[in-house]
Automatic annotation (TrEMBL):
SUPFAM superfamilies the UniProt entry points to: Acyl-CoA N-acyltransferases (Nat)
Protein name: GNAT family N-acetyltransferase
Keywords for this protein: Acyltransferase, Transferase
Molecular-function GO term, any one: acyltransferase activity, transferring groups other than amino-acyl groups
Domain N-acetyltransferase: 1-147
Classification lineage: Bacteria, Pseudomonadati, Pseudomonadota, Gammaproteobacteria, Cellvibrionales
InterPro entries reported in the protein's UniProt record: Acyl_CoA_acyltransferase (IPR016181), Bact_Acetyltransf (IPR050832), DUF3335 (IPR021770), GNAT_dom (IPR000182)
Pfam families: Acetyltransf_1, DUF3335
Matches recorded under PANTHER family: AMINOALKYLPHOSPHONATE N-ACETYLTRANSFERASE-RELATED (PTHR43877:SF2), AMINOALKYLPHOSPHONATE N-ACETYLTRANSFERASE-RELATED-RELATED (PTHR43877)
PROSITE patterns named among the record's database cross-references: GNAT
Listed CDD domains: NAT_SF (cd04301)
Protein species of origin: Parahaliea maris
Length: 378
């Protein structure tokens, strides 16, 4: 048996194995062709001469240290030879060499043999995704740290919510933050739009306006939460992406309105950078945190995007990303993400420093949301 990267000539055998292995959720010919050429994946096949015995496909989430086992199949006639274990070992190695720290997967709750194999190889259960497959079966969620580490910090349970439009990453992130704090806050699609209306900059490069950090802080303040803002630019934000002078004028007016209302509401605004220690100190003290990032390292689009901090350890900061990739007009259906690809994304600390700066002015913005007044921390 040989394990290698697949060739275009393997496509007919891959399709035949897929047809024989799965009744639902099969990978299409078009998708296999795409994965054969895709750079953000680790794809390996097991062969005996000209016979395909099995394959394993792992996808890599750009900009993060997360990999996901997308699919694994072994020919029924070849089972019992350790092929699945060998394939998993090779794709784990490939994901590790690509920089991934974690490998995640989902497996049908009733697939006892596969679950036993994953547990034997060190995968741990961390959740259940109900009604996951086309036949409405539930998926067990499993994860393995494929690089050793020493954990530290608070990785609390924080609800994950997807944004329902291309322009509501800020409201979705804020709903996660507020729903993860003590109290009775209830997120909803109606609330998502209401938050956007309260926090929008009105205009953006194209399409609907994004959300201003001060606007998000004000929206949380109106709902009874304590807020604190860190932003390293005092002037109007996001103007460099807008050419129309009248649009810029409106954005300046909106910005000044947010500034004045924050001052009147007693919301503390720090016009400076916040470092990772300050972020994790506030998180450990019980606050939830929204962070503005640039999506360039994730999708090469250079767009401002809000995410919510969900935990940290010595190597990474972890975030909930509300964007499932199916709301952007620039992305087709093949770019839609699994919800598991968007939760607790591990971002290496050295990468996070660059990712959390946006635009030519290297804008950094953070909104701290707490059930009570944020602690006085340096």
């Amino acid at each position: 048996m040989q394990i290698r990267s697949p060739h275009d000539s393997d496509l007919p055998a891959l399709l035949a194995l897929e047809q024989a292995s799965f009744r639902n959720d099969r990978i299409s010919r078009r998708s296999f062709r795409r994965w054969l050429r895709h750079r953000d994946c680790v794809f390996r096949v097991a062969v005996d001469g000209d016979t395909l015995l099995g394959y394993a496909l792992v996808t890599l989430r750009r900009g993060t240290r997360l990999a996901r086992l997308y699919s694994l199949a072994v020919d029924a006639a070849a089972r019992g030879r350790g092929i699945a274990e060998a394939l998993l070992g090779r794709v784990e190695q490939g994901a590790r060499e690509a920089g991934a720290l974690y490998l995640r997967l989902e497996v049908a709750e009733g697939n006892v043999a596969a679950i036993s194999l994953y547990e034997k190889l060190g995968y741990l259960r961390f959740g259940l995704y109900e009604d996951y497959y086309e036949d409405h079966a539930s998926a067990l969620r499993m994860e393995k740290r494929i690089r050793p580490y020493t954990p530290s910090g608070d990785s609390r349970s924080l609800p994950w919510l997807p944004q329902t439009t291309a322009f509501t990453c800020g409201p979705a992130s804020l709903m996660m933050a507020m729903a993860g704090l003590p109290g009775h806050y209830q997120p909803s699609p109606e609330e998502e739009i209401a938050l956007w209306r309260e926090a929008t900059t009105v205009f953006m490069t194209s399409g609907h306006g994004g959300c201003h950090p001060l606007g998000l802080a004000l929206a949380a303040h109106r709902r009874g939460f304590a807020t604190e803002v860190w932003v390293n630019n005092e002037g109007p934000l996001f103007l460099e992406g807008v050419r129309d002078e009248n649009k810029k004028r409106v954005m300046r007016i909106a910005h000044q309105g947010f500034v004045d209302e924050c001052a009147a509401s007693g919301i503390t605004t720090h016009y400076s950078d916040i470092d990772q220690q300050q972020l994790t100190d506030r998180f450990s003290a019980g606050a939830n945190i929204l962070i503005l990032i640039s999506t360039y390292r994730m999708d090469s689009m250079k767009a401002p995007h809000w995410v919510t901090l969900s935990g940290f350890d010595d190597d990474c900061l972890y975030v909930h990303d509300p964007d499932m990739g199916n709301t952007s007009p620039h992305q087709g259906p093949d770019t839609a993400r699994n919800p598991l690809d968007c939760q607790h994304l591990p971002i290496a600390r050295e990468d996070f420093a660059a990712m959390s700066r946006f635009g030519s002015k290297r804008l950094r913005a953070v909104v701290v949301v707490a059930a009570d007044r944020p602690p006085e921390l340096d």
